[in-house]
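Progress report, Aim 2. The chain analyzed during this reporting quarter is listed below.
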Amino acid sequence: MSSISRMVAELMKTYSFRLAGLLSVLCLCGHTSIFAQGLRVIEGQDKVEIVGDISYAENDNPRQTLDLLLPKVRQDEHRLPVLAYIHGGGWRAGNKRGGRWHLMKYVAGGKFAGVTIGYRLSGEAIWPAQIHDCKAGIRWIRANADLYGLDPDRILVWGHSAGGHLSSMLGTSGDVEELEGTIGRHLEMSSRVQAVANFYGPSDFLQMDAYRLPEGLIHEAAESPESMLIGGPIQEHPEKVAMANPIIFVSKDDPVFLSIHGTQDRLVPAHQSVILHEALQKAGVLTEIYLVKGGGHGRFQDPEVIKRQDAFFERFRNQ
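Predicted structure tokens for the chain:
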């Protein structure tokens, strides 16, 4: 092999390794769907109309926008129930565009509309900015239901990791005035939702380290995602933490919940979904949980996950 050939081979080896590492990091932060969009055509996208980058906040902040996905052919003439997706990324990374990949197959079938909601990350604004943004997104959906043929009484929120946390917060804090915010111009609209699909989202920050796996993420650290979200170490700010915990606001009038969590999750202990499920049960809320044996922080290989997800969405659609 010539010296030039050896040089080319070594460069290819080096950059292939670096690309693999980059992909691993992005997967951890919830960016797999973004790469999927760039590398292949998303199944069903030819059957979906996308209205992108709608500002629910009536400003020029690209984070405070949402994308609306509508089927080009609707199954019937009835108003469409809405699947509203909220992205993950530890509240400090991620992008609403990733939600398109998750929503596409459901919208393409003509039975649902989809919305993927962006929000300000913790590097820009600390809690409760994130829930204020998400609630503004829900109010926008309701305010524009007539325009797009949406059902304002059938809104399901769905998210993974940090998105699961925000979805759970929307589900349990529907009547908490301090978390409503004043974002957008549809403040007369309700931010309540009718169903929540929580995929491995935190529910009680101060219990996370007590149940973390060996070598799992330390959440009490000042640089942890939870600490950065509230603006300081979580142990030093219990009152702020309480306002960010979905479990604190559980009440009997909360919507139906589905929680899915891997038992070997090193980032968010499975105990977080278990205690939320138990609190909802105690309050008399209809709730379901599925623990993926041996599953980590997403990327589940268990076919039961999709089966339960699809069944939950279909029950919501028929309610």
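The domain at 44-317 is CATH 3.40.50.1820 (Rossmann fold). The beta strands are 48-55, 65-71, 80-86, 113-117, 150-160, 195-199, 256-262, 287-292. These observations will guide the mutagenesis work planned for the next reporting period.
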